[in-house]
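Standup notes, protein team

Yesterday: finished cleaning the Crateriforma conspicua set.
Today: Tll0287-like domain-containing protein structure.
Blockers: none.

Input for Tll0287-like domain-containing protein:
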Amino acid sequence: MNLSRWSALMLAGLACLFGFVGCQRGNESPEPSAQIEPTDAPETVEKLPSMRDERFATAVAAKDDLFQTLSGRLMEVMQTEGPVAAIRVCSEDAPKIAQTVADEHGVEIGRTSWKLRNPDNAPRDWVQPFVDQKADLPQTVTLEDGRLGVTFPIRLDVKCLMCHGGPDDVLDSVKPELAKRYPDDQATGFKAGDLRGMFWVEVPAT
């Protein structure tokens, strides 16, 4: 596939690239819904709070901030330097952006999946049951010291296929750079609309 096929997509919307942070369609902040009961989870799974719950709202705000900040940076680099350069953003800049968002909101935050690109995004213990079950709705658990753990699903938009799609979808210009930076990459073979992974947020008890 050549780059011209995707130029309109890259300029029209969010660059859902390399690290899967920007692939949530529309980036809405969903009302929490029914949850999946994890198997052998060490923490207590609780009824999901409403959006009026202050800590859940904090988790939503942090997730939205990470999504918007990293996606904006990706779009900037995509437009000025191209998709190959944007891989550097997810490889080098994304951890710094996530830490800045965490500090600003007073939380811990990250992304994970059952098909990882970056091994540093491996799920935390409390997130693992939701990853195993591919939970496609927001989930909450009560963690140690009363902290609130929240996950939010990420679904793949069509713009994400240039990086996460099948062999005919991923840009030819991108493949060598992905192979160099992520030799054990598992994060391909998706279709538009697929559940790609999830954001996770830990909010302090107070």
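Follow-up from PR in the comments: Residues 2-44 have pLDDT under 50 and may be disordered.
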